[in-house]
Amino acid sequence: MGLPELTFSLKKAADNVATRVSSGIVAMILRDAKANGLHTINRESDIPSELGAANIAAIKRAMLGYITKPTTLYVSVIGADADIKTGFQALAIHSYDYLVGPVDIASADATALAAQVKAQRTKRYVGKVILPNVAADDEGVINFVSSGIKVGEGTFTAAQYAGRIAGVLAGTPAYCSATYAALPEVTGVDTLADPDSAVDAGKLFLIDDGRQVKLSRAVTSKTTLAEDDPDMLKKVKLVAALDLIRYYAITTVEDEYLGKCANTYDNKCILLVAFSDFFASLEAQNVIQEGSSGAELDAEAIRTYLLGIAEEAGDTEEIARIKALTDEALRKEDTGSHVFLYLYGHVLDAMEDFHITLEAQ
To answer: 0.90 cut: is pTM over it?
Structure first.
């Protein structure tokens, strides 16, 4: 695999990242007696007419979007008695950015769906799931807690309106945040006693400021950070961009590079150059901060890998040799089939917190 082909593929992947974080894809699991199966919806005419009125309305709400509209909806329709996992597993053939459950999702199903998403996100790209009142403490789960959502003559629960929120988040471009996104159709909502504490607790909700009803700060349910966890895992916008960068980088390399060339230092350098171009494209599109990104061979990870082999073999001379190697020398060592990369870049946030001083004279 030569440099031009891989570089072209990763530049195309960078364009895909920018496109997806500008207008994402929503997945829905619905329960209905009819139209069971998987449906792809790009326009209202694609909605199965035999679905119940509540489900059709939920799909239409998700399609409203925000600054843009979701590019596609994948809808998995299951029967009333089917396991929620069935609907989730059916969506595995698609890549999507936000997932919601049935409009009448039970608490047990919401908890089960959160567990499914958390488990799968460690293995493959799975979008963030928006669930009613599920404090999952995970960046892959968005805990939507509003109640008494008034639209026209109707009043909706968090579960019924989760699809609308998914559409808002999917319709938020990379350079924006969904924080304070207005929902013009909503005329009222139950007020939380302590909104600031709710945000700190990883809750997403609607605010009625007297002029309009809008989304609160767009946070995930992540509240507990491990020592090596970045604070960005608490923000929907930043997690969305990070997820897509990881997804397109990994899948492009798997499709275009994995198994197609010898694991030499020269070929590793070709891969690094291609990744540098990938990040440069993302910098140019304001997904990550200019000058913040890069790609290099991970010397520390290589040292750990080689030491593990030497220690397992009980080769004291090899252990001493590896420990004495410089980082640059380590990067040129033979690592079998393994390639250890260190990729970095600062994902840009949106303007949310303003500090304004007005001096009147």
So the answer is: no
